[in-house]
């Protein structure tokens, strides 16, 4: 029995630290437990982690851990970065960095036997789906598709000369869309669903060719990129945490609900994350869009045992550039796979005259 509400933040790095700052400034916020280690969460034994979770019994766990933040690759020269983020490569082949610690946490949660919600920051479009295959899915992710929505609203607002508060969006999209639409207006070709409304009326067709509309998103709504945009990611995190904590039934967008691939409209409450599909969309059809879209981000498929199979392009790129021979990332081996990739990547970065942040 939980005596009072608690939020546990695991991983108080750049993103988790901002989330902690935001939460601490909310009047009447419940108890907050912050957990971090210089040796990183992944070096702790899972049994010890489960014991700690049982002791504190948090209402919500915020997973801010990763073995390498997504923005680190952007520290490389732009031309080199472009070779890594080539077509059908993207963030996918870095998945071991994000899966390893999240898997350890979710195993600890299961072993602890506590009834808790897990908000996961680590590439939730893919990690949540992989772990969901084996009954370890976090409750919901953050960011990614959620961060596209303000771009769409602001661009539509300016084009239609309508207050941004009157504009609603229904979108089913992957991390790939968020990464490309918001930076360079590209990536429209990856399967997705997008409709735009003004006070309940569908105005999508009034906005003209949607490929061109997406191409103009950066012009209308560009924000600070990379690590400088972490405050917006933190805002998405706090929104999801507080919506579950307060049982608000907020309808928003977020990746990885119910162990699904990609991002969906969701309702957040003490029931968890319920997918709220557009009227003309079935879950099967929506999921098929994301199964195809993830291939643009370097993920060929996710097996029933959670194994993540990389696309040929992702596999070949990492073998050529980093001498990493990895076709499949597995839940059980992801930690060692991540350590090998990190070592090879750091060596590569040095050869490019770049020192990778620890």
Key descriptive features of the protein:
single chain; 358 residues; four-stranded parallel sheet; 13 strands; 42% helix; globular
Structure commentary:
This protein is of the alpha/beta class and 358 residues long. 42% of the residues lie in helices and 16% in strands. The chain contains 13 helices and 13 strands. A 4-stranded parallel β-sheet has the order 2-1-3-4, sandwiched between helices. Helix 4 crosses helix 5. The termini are far apart.
* Poorly predicted residue ranges: 39-45
What characteristic shape results from the CA principal axes?
Answer: globular
Multimeric state of these chains?
single chain
Chain-averaged pLDDT: 92
The percent range for strand residues is 15-25%
Distance between the termini: 39 Å
Question: Helices, strands, pairings?
Answer:
Layout: E1 6-10, H1 14-24, E2 31-35, H2 46-56, E3 60-63, H3 78-84, H4 95-112, E4 117-120, H5 124-132, H6 145-160, E5 167-172, H7 175-184, E6 193-198, E7 201-202, H8 210-215, H9 217-221, H10 230-245, E8 250-255, E9 263-269, E10 272-275, H11 283-296, E11 299-302, E12 308-310, H12 312-322, E13 328-329, H13 334-351
Parallel strand pairs: 1-2, 1-3, 3-4
Antiparallel strand pairs: 5-6, 6-7, 8-9, 9-10, 11-12, 12-13
